[in-house]
Amino acid sequence: MLTVSDASETGVGACWADTLTMAGVDFLLSSLSRSPVMPNEEWMLVDLFAGVGGFRRACELARIPITLFAFSEIDAFGIKVIKHRWPDAIELPRVERITDSDLRLLSMMCPRVTHILLTAGSPCQDVSSANVAGAGPEGKRSVLLWEVPRVKELLRQMFPEARLHLMEENV
Fold first, then answer.
1. The predicted structure's pLDDT at residue 9
2. pLDDT of residue 136
3. Rounded distance between C-alpha atoms, residue 125 and residue 6, angstroms
4. pLDDT for residue 83
5. What letters, b where the CB count within 10 A reaches 16 and e where it falls short, cover 113-151?
6. Distance CA 36, CA 61 (A)
7. N or C: which end of the chain has fewer CB within 10 A?
8. 66-72/90-91 β-pairing
9. For the whole model, what pTM was predicted?
């Protein structure tokens, strides 16, 4: 397992593990042998602060067939990676600019969606202990966390019949 953190403006941290406990092996094998999705379900992934598409890749590894993938990201490199890897991905505006009109477009593209997975790994540089000069929870990046419940409510209104799942990275 490799984990990486980008909490610093000037670098990243990485950890590596090359073994699993027996419980870890059992869990991995049981997870790989089944899909959590029923055949008649349609899943939409709306990824806020998408980076290079880590949540989208996780859905592939978990065998969740995503019917529609929409993302919001401001980093040009991240956008380029997502568009290269998933050319049919729908790019949404910056998270603070997402409106019901943007989501109405998604409802037209995926009218029979049964599940919406809303994922968000909001910027953490202002609150990370790796950044001693961080501005804290009121920093210009940290306050973007409060856009997640706003977008969640817009999705609830636009897709009242769909089951909404929220997955957030927490720092």
1. 52
2. 60
3. 8
4. 97
5. bbbbbbbbbbbbbbbbebbeebeeeebeebebbebbeeb
6. 11
7. N
8. parallel
9. 0.76
The residues near 151 (Cβ < 8 Å, ≥ 6 apart) are 46, 48, 95, 98, 118
Q: Which two tokens stand for residue 116?
A: 């919406």
Amino acid making up residue 19: T
Percentage with pLDDT > 90 across the chain? 48
| The token pair that represents 11 in the structure block | 């670098």
pLDDT value at position 77? 92
User: What number of other Cβ atoms are within 10 A of residue 164's Cβ?
Assistant: 16
CA proximity to 122, closest of 82, 156, 149: 149
- Listed in sequence order, the residues at least 6 apart from 36 whose beta carbon sits closer than 8 Å to its beta carbon are 62, 63, 64
